[in-house]
Amino acid sequence: MNQKREGMLAPALIGGAAAGFLSGIPFFNCLCCLWIIGGGILAAYLLAKDSPESLKPGDGAIAGILSGIVAAVVNALISVPLHAVHGRVSRRILERLSEFAEEAPSGWEQLFDLSAGPLSVSAFLFGLFISAAVFAIFGALGGIIGVSLFGKKQGPAKEGVPHAPQNPGDRQS
């Protein structure tokens, strides 16, 4: 594994932990996809800060994918203790909606009974898998955006390539 790939783990962990934490907190999770993109941007920024050379969009995408996977794990771990609270809040919302929904199909309230019950291991793992896939996509997008913002390094001038004059009066005829 080359040096650049080994250096992606720490930025991905930091960006993913921040994004997963913010997307797992109630009321902050309304901006879930934005947090994941932000985590990918943060991972790309941290990667670019420590890199002596310019980064390619693929480097940012890989850091963002790793950040998205870490965010999915952190989000899932935060969501476990809050599962019962989410179930009760969902139930109260449904009860309030049922007062106003006279023409709703019969049995529509039972759709949310699954979320009010205990969390099974299979449901947890399935949710983690789906979240990891979706978060990896948004993390890759954030990583590419982050590299385009922070990944360009000003290196020494290449020989044989003329520089543009700094001042218009410095032009040679």
Overview of the structural elements:
The protein is an all-alpha fold and 173 residues long. It has one domain (3-99, 110-152). 68% of the residues lie in helices and 0% in strands. α2 runs antiparallel to α3 and α4 (57-100) crosses α6.
Roughly what is the average pLDDT, rounded to an integer? 80
Give the number of helices: 6
Nearest-angstrom radius of gyration?
Answer: 23 Å
Pick out the low-confidence regions. Answer: none
Q: How much strand content do the residues show?
A: under 5%
Question: Secondary-structure element order, as H and E?
Answer: HHHHHH
Question: How far is the first residue's CA from the last residue's CA?
Answer: 51 Å
Range of helix content: 55-70%
Strand element count? 0
Q: Report the biggest beta sheet as strand number plus sense, adding barrel if it closes.
A: none
Class derived from helix and strand content = mainly alpha
